[in-house]
Amino acid sequence: MNIIVHGSDTSRVKKRIGLLKKKYDIQLPTIDFDAEHIDQREILVEMDSFSIFDERKMIVIENCTFLCAKDTTKYKVEEFIERSNQDDMCIVVYTVYNDKLDKRKNVVKEMLAKSELITCIALDEKSKPAFVDDICKRLDLRMDYQAREYFLNVTGLDSSRIEMELEKLKTYASFIDEESARALITIEPEDNIFKMTDALFGRNALLFLSYYRNFREQNMAPVAINALIASQVRFLFNVRYLMDAGYGKEEITSKLKTTSGRIYYTMKKADAFSCEELLDILEELANLDQNMKTGKMDMDEGFERFAFDMLKENI
Questions:
Q1: DSSP-derived secondary structure letter, 296
Q2: If you ran DSSP here, which 8-state letter would residue 123 be given?
C-alpha cells in the first residue's frame, strides 16, 4: 500500500506520519530511509521482505524528490510502481518536503494513481479555517462562532501550535465558548506582530496602535515590541535584497531557511518597497530603541509618536 505525503510544512508532514501509524495500528517501529543518502536497492529489499511477526510494517522514505521536477535521487521509480498493491500489511509512505509534485512525468502520474495522496502545504490565512475545522472534526471538538473567530485571530499560522491549542481545548471540554477560548488559549507575541507589521506597511495607524496597546495590556515592554517589529522589517529587507539580486522563491527559501509559504507572502509585500525604504525604517526603529533605552523619551509616548510620524510620512 502506497501513501504519498508532500508539502513544505515539515511539522504537518511528520504529524501525518504519526497519525497514519495510529490509523493502521502499526505496532512495530517504522523502518526509515532517506532517499538522498541510501541506495534504492536497500529499500527494495525491505519492501520485498515479510515481517516474521506477521504484523503490519510501515516503511517511511523521506526526501522522495523523484516525485518533483528536480530529482536528487536518480531512483528508478518503475521499481516502486511494480511493487504497488493494496495489501496493507506493508505500508510504504513516500514523503517529500515540496508543495508541488511534477505531474508532467508519466511515472509520477502512475505513482499517484496507485497511491493515497496527503498534502501538507504551509498554512496561510485562506487555508487556516479549513485546517482548524478538520482538526476539530477529528477531535470531536466544537466551538461557537465567537470562539472560533477568536481562535483564528490569535493563533497564527504554525500548524503544530494550532493543533496543540485545539488539543488543549479538547481536554477542557467538547464545546468551547468565547469566554473559555479567551481564558485557555495562549497568545504568543509573534502571532500578532505579523499583523501589526502589516498595519505599519499598510499605513493603517489606528490598527497599528491597536495592536501596540494590546501588547501593552499583556505587560509587554515597548522595547520588546520594537525589537519584534524590527526583526520583521529586517526579514522583509533580506527578501527584497535577494529579489533584487535575481533569486527566485525556492532559492530565497533555502537561503533564509524558512518555509516557501512565508517567502511567497513576504515577496508580495516586498514588491511595495525598495531596499532603501526598508533601511530607513530600520534606522528609525534603531533610533527609537536608543531613545527609549536612554530615557530621552517616555516609552509609550515615544512609540506612538514614532508610529504617527512614520505613517504620516507614508513610511
A1: S
A2: P
CA–CA distance from 287 to each of 118, 226, 227, 293, 297 (Å)? 48, 11, 12, 10, 11
> What are the beta bridge partners of residue 93?
3, 60
Give the separation between CA 240 and CA 296, rounded to whole angstroms.
33
pLDDT in tens, 252-275: 888 887 766 678 778 888 888 899
How far apart, in whole angstroms, are the C-alpha atoms of residue 98 and residue 6? 6
Q: Rounded to an integer, what is the distance from CA 220 to the centroid of its chain?
A: 25
Distance CA 208, CA 225 (A): 12
| Alpha carbon distance 196, 199 (integer Å) | 5
Cell triple for residue 125? Answer: 490565512
Q: Nine-digit cell at 156?
A: 497564527
Separation of alpha carbons 146 and 70, rounded Å:
45
Residues forming a β-bridge with 60: 32, 93
With both helix axes pointing from N to C terminus, report the angle between 189-201 and 205-217 in degrees, rounded to the nearest 10. Answer: 160
d(CA 114, CA 117): 9
Written as nine digits, the cell of 237 is: 529587507
Burial zone of 246 (CB within 10 Å; 0-12 exposed, 13-18 middle, 19+ buried): exposed
pLDDT value, residue 182 = 85
222, 300 Cβ separation under 8 angstroms: yes
Low-confidence ranges of the chain (pLDDT < 50): 315
Instruction: Look up residue 76 and give its three cell numbers.
Output: 528508478
Cα 223 from Cα 292, distance rounded (Å): 7
What pLDDT sits at residue 191?
60
Cell 512525468 maps to which residue? 105
- String of DSSP letters for 150-165: HHHHHSTT-HHHHHHH
